[in-house]
Amino acid sequence: METERGNWTSMNPNGIRRNLATNDRPKRGVPEGLWRQCPQCKSTIFTKEAAARFNVCPECDYHFYLPAKERIQQLLDQDSFEEWFTELRPTDPLGFKDHREYSKRLISEQAKTGMHDAAVVGKGFIRGRPVVLGVTDFAFMAGSMGSVVGEKLTRAIEEAIRLKLPLIFVSGSGGGARMQEGILSLMQMAKVSAALARYDSAGGLYISILTNPTMGGVAASWAGLGDVILAEPGALIGFAGKRTIWNTVRLELPKGFQTSEFLLQHGLIDRIVPRKDLRTELARIVDYCERQRRRAPCSVDDHGNRTSEPFQLF
Fold it and tell me: What global pTM score does this model have?
């Protein structure tokens, strides 16, 4: 039978009418990505609400992964970032293959992330202050440091020396050195560290920001060499993971071991800064060091010869 609205109805065995047009319509599901679960407090949160807080849980302040592009937008003044060395591309110098060829893995990672490799470097402004910024992104092969990552960071340091600008590196590297590039990857630890030593000798200010995770060869080299080392709350920071340490030396680790809170308590980092406050904190540190540079006196002997150098920021 047909109703006045034109929808077909039928009578089931219990004498209850049902609307065929309505009941036969496929049910609408919840759009993918609308909600996410916080791994810390287990709350189901609205994705857009977390995104509005720079990917921080509104219930417990857990800091989710933040892509390099969004990290740059969060830290720098709007439209102030000038990316450098975009022509650098990773290769497969060893012809490495495990269960998949490294060359094909690179193509897949580039398609997935839209990045050429795990590092982005360039120049920008933080509340009007010019800085050189480098960011490693966990999404690209766990942010591991291959030849291109090391080369980009080294060139960024050299540009910071040339331009006499503060240097800020943000680590999101959970993979350490990239095993698919063998010794060429391990060499990047020494190369970037040597460049940082030259930068320090030139009087530069280097701020290292450790995010979740910062592990392996990255934690053992440039991420731990900052004049000021900041970390996000709850970040995993260390060389080898808990399971690796247990399997190697059968050592039970203290509770909270390798978290930013544990490392702050034991003196490895200088301060834990929530993501929403990072930009302001960075501007404050740069301003403070600049003021100290202007005020620092030189020590001289009785003959007027300088016996010590003043605090330097170039």
Answer: 0.84
